[in-house]
Amino acid sequence: MFNFFKKKDQKKQVTKQVDPMYNFNWYDVGEGNPFNKRILDIRPFTQKMISTTKDPAIAQLFLTNRQSSGEEYIGFDFENSTSVDTQLIYPHKGGKIEGVGYKAKVMEDKWDIYVWNDIIYFVRSWTSEVGYKAFITYSDNSLIVHKIEIDGNNRSESEQSIAINNVHFLISTLAFKAVQPHKIPNNLITNEEIAAYSFSVFGRDCWYATYDDVINLTIIETNNGA
User: Which domain of life does the UniProt lineage start with (predicted)?
Assistant: First the structure.
């Protein structure tokens, strides 16, 4: 599965304010919407936005991290953490996965992914901060994520839900090249807030947003630039 991977300090990142003139559209479930969720089309922003930073150290760190194998994350633990049990299952007929899963190519790509000792490390490409640790097992034809760790104690149920959905979204879009919506927090109200949040978290790899869970979505489309 992961052979197909080819493709927080957010204050250091410069994202222009989303112009309210962007043409964002909500699509209800039904004709013209291939998903069984109500979605917001945020492509007019996420597919055109350019990421920049005013801090040359951040830019250099991004470039340096393009050479990393991720071995420095082996044994990494959050200072405080919340563990979330889950059951995310993906087709996988290969052997044990080790090493680089996905590397950001440009600054509009927000994640690097490494797999070591049956743990997937989801690392922010700009800052090298670990966002999620996903613990995996294998069956004859599947890879199973059975636990996710996130930074911070006593995370709310909604934050845990976002973590599970984000891990699923990253695996689906970066491993399988799927086009699908990602889940957004309920406190985001305006279309512009949603678009800015989405680009900040996922960069150019997000196209649609929804308030609903996405872990039960079927992978229906190949990402060819959305």
Answer: Bacteria
User: Is 213 strand, coil or helix?
Assistant: coil
Contact indicator for 45, 160 with CB cutoff of 8 Å = no
Contact 162, 185 (CB under 8 A): yes
Count of residues in the chain = 226
From CA 8, how far away is CA 12, in angstroms rounded? 9
2 three-state secondary structure: helix
Least confident residue range of 42-46, 134-138, 166-170, 172-176:
172-176
- How do the domains of the chain map onto residue ranges? 2-75+82-210
Residue 126: beta bridge partners? Answer: none
**What φ, ψ does residue 63 adopt, rounded to 5°?**
-65, -40
pLDDT in tens, 141-159: 999 999 999 999 878 999 9
C-alpha 200: how far from chain center? 10
Nearest to 148 by CA among 90, 205, 87, 58: 87
